[in-house]
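Progress note, sequence design subtask.
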């Protein structure tokens, strides 16, 4: 990475740890029935605690508290770890997902899953889903009223937008962002960076896009 590079990568130590504990491979889907079973177990334990605790001998709620703790310890770790691990890998597993340098903007929509980490190489041109001269951007916007905000949105030339929407590997995410923010190329800075760093990260990217010829927001 050159000194002039501005980039976006997921920097969340807790997600890194949870992702290491729960590797999630590409194409993984938590079966709804599995998730439902865990949630039902946790809900039943909670209801039992609320209803039965006041009826305990001599007002003792300890047996029911222990039962709840045991049920929660069984029911919650798997879905929590899976969601956290999926987030870590879906947002690049610490690898750069947006980069602005040398008059070019490079972006990746696809995640970097556990079974793809060994081959991950941001210096390989095929790593990126989008590569454009910054001056070719039709616009740069920031959305702040949606989950994961601020969201950095790049308005693309028609040909580049069509390529993202046509590619089998990027189509689903590109359609998601097109329907949500009006462009197939967007990155949730609020997820990549913590509360104390996200605005600084956003300013760095916007400054790089402006200095290197990107369209103003």
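Output:
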């Amino acid at each position: 990475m050159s000194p002039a590079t501005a980039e976006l990568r997921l920097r969340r130590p807790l997600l890194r740890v949870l992702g290491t504990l729960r590797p999630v491979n590409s194409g993984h889907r938590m079966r709804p029935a599995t998730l439902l079973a865990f949630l039902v177990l946790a809900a039943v334990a909670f209801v039992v605690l609320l209803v039965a605790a006041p009826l305990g001998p001599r007002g003792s709620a300890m047996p029911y508290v222990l039962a709840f703790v045991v049920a929660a310890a069984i029911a919650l770790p798997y879905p929590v770890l899976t969601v956290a691990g999926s987030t870590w890998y879906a947002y690049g597993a610490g690898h750069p997902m947006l980069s602005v340098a040398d008059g070019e903007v490079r972006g990746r929509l696809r995640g970097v899953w556990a079974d793809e980490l060994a081959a991950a190489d941001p210096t390989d041109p095929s790593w990126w889903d989008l590569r454009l001269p910054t001056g070719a951007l039709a616009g740069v916007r920031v959305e702040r009223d949606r989950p994961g905000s601020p969201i950095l949105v790049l308005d693309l030339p028609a040909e580049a937008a069509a390529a993202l929407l046509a590619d089998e590997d990027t189509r689903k995410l590109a359609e998601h962002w097109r329907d949500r923010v009006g462009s197939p190329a967007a990155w949730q800075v609020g997820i990549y960076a913590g509360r104390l760093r996200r605005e600084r990260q956003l300013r760095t990217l916007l400054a790089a896009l402006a200095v290197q010829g990107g369209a103003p927001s």
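The beta strands are 6-8, 98-101, 104-107, 130-133, 139-143, 151-155, 185-188. Work on this subtask will continue into the next period as scheduled.
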